[in-house]
Amino acid sequence: MDVFSDPTNIDVYVTGFLWILKLTVAGTAGAVVLGVLLAAMRVSPVPVLRGFGTAWVNTFRNTPLTLIIFFCYFGLFSTLGLTLSDDIDRNNYWLGVIGLSVYTAAFVCEAIRSGINTVPAGQAEAARAIGMSFFQTLTIVVLPQAGRAVIAPLGSIFIALAKNSTIVGTIGLAESSNAMKELINANGDQVIPIFLVFAGTFAAVLIPTGYAFGWLANRMAVKR
Amino acid sequence: MSTDAVLYDHPGPRAKVRNAILTVVFGIAMLALLYWIYLKFDEKGQWAAALWKPFTEASTWRDYLLPGLWGTVSAAAVAMVLSLVFGLVFSVGRLSDHRWLSVPSGVVVEFFRAVPLLLLIFFIFYGIPFLTESPMPPFWAVVAGLTLYNGSVLAEAFRAGIRSVPRGQSEAGFAIGMRKSLVMREILVPQAARAMLPVIVSQLVVLVKDTALGYIIAYPELLQSVNILAANFGNIVAAAIVAAIIYIAVNATLTAVAGWLERRTRRQGKAPKAKAGPAPVGTVATGDALGA
Questions:
Q1: What is the pLDDT of residues A167-210, one digit of tens each?
Q2: What does chain B look like in DSSP terms, one character per residue?
Q3: Total CB pairs under 8 A between chain A and B
Q4: What is the value of ipTM here, to two decimals?
Q5: Which residue is closest to B1 within chain A, CA to CA?
Q6: pTM, entire model
Q7: Which residue of B has its CA nearest to A123?
């Protein structure tokens, strides 16, 4: 484990995972906001909005994230001149956040929509029958039940987002996978320990997170 | 009215008027958004015919796009076959009664599901050559990474599938004197496989998307050939849009096939009934189907 006794190498490792953390947090925030909006559009009674939501989901769910990030950099930034920061790393970071949010929002939208669909229609009919308004039906009856059903899928989506944030390395951000590549190329004799440390960090954080979401989903499950 | 059965009542006269007004308002807003994108593209001269013309010529397709698509499809197909084998072996291993077999299988599956695919591919492509002293072909780096990740995802799907086969099936097998391995081979796996067919096909979508990671290690797949094409014609925006359309066409077809298989399986009543619960397998999109 000589590689990790060198402070510069530790610095590479820490910087790599700090980018992953920042990308995951900002990406999650963006994806949730966009995803909730898209889900609201997809279940709305206005055909134009439903069409927009469906088009968004089908477009971004079927496009590789690598291509989306590629487009954010070469299309939005290089060609169309969208500059988000003067610092090159900051700029790539925000371009990455846009790509991750736009892509993940499609999955968040679908999870929320299927969550709403798990609520039996009778629940809302009963709510309307006792005179609740649309807003009351939504906030008191439908969303509390739907929210519990989407815990598990949303958990998997956020975990996938954390893993997917490595792809922002494509456009030159020194996140964990690029950091690992750099260390491997500089220390060819210690390839396996380097991989185990980087992969182990992801596994050590994401596996317990996955179980925690599973436990929470089970605990909160609506008994029907 | 498709998905709004829960939230909205059938519209009465007032709701109809309100919906019509909202349709017009949001319709105009959408058109304005599209026009704004059009203007932004126009500002940078992205609608110039010269940028889009290459895609109408046969040579572009022959020299760039079709070989790229072939690279994507072949890597995805080989990885699919290998991940099916991997998934089957490790799901059965994890369900084994012997702890020395089930625990390591579980560790392998959990580990490869938690590690980002790009990290795995980088290790195989840049790291393994240091150990073997021979260069790693990009094709096999992509295929090996995809197999380990998607195989683990499929292993979990198979395990859920095998466990969803009613207990009476295996009990009947044991009652007529079958051994554990025979019950697994002849009774459980065939029934689980049929129920899992839609999941397997939707996993193909993930594989096709994930092959795009090959671009990063210079494997000649669709994104890589689009990159070279764009360098030659200077039309990166147009090329990326065409690439996205190709990916969407391929994946939408696969999704449609998965949906058709699912309906067919359900109609023929061959699928084991999903366990009661808030989210039976396949009803709520799982994040594992995300890929990259």
A1: 999 888 889 999 999 999 998 888 999 999 999 999 999 999 99
A2: --STTTT-PPP-HHHHHHHHHHHHHHHHHHHHHHHHHHHHHHHTTTT-HHHHGGGGSHHHIIIIIHHHHHHHHHHHHHHHHHHHHHHHHHHHHHT-S-HHHHHHHHHHHHHHHHS-HHHHHHIIIIIHHHHHSSPPPHHHHHHHHHHHHHHHHHHHHHHHHHHTS-HHHHHHHHHTT--HHHIIIIIIHHHHHHHHHHHHHHHHHHHHHHGGGGGGGT--SHHHHHHHHHHHHT-HHHHHHHHHHHHHHHHHHHHHHHHHHHHHHHHHT-SPPPPSSSS-TTTS--GGG---
A3: 229
A4: 0.90
A5: A45
A6: 0.89
A7: B6
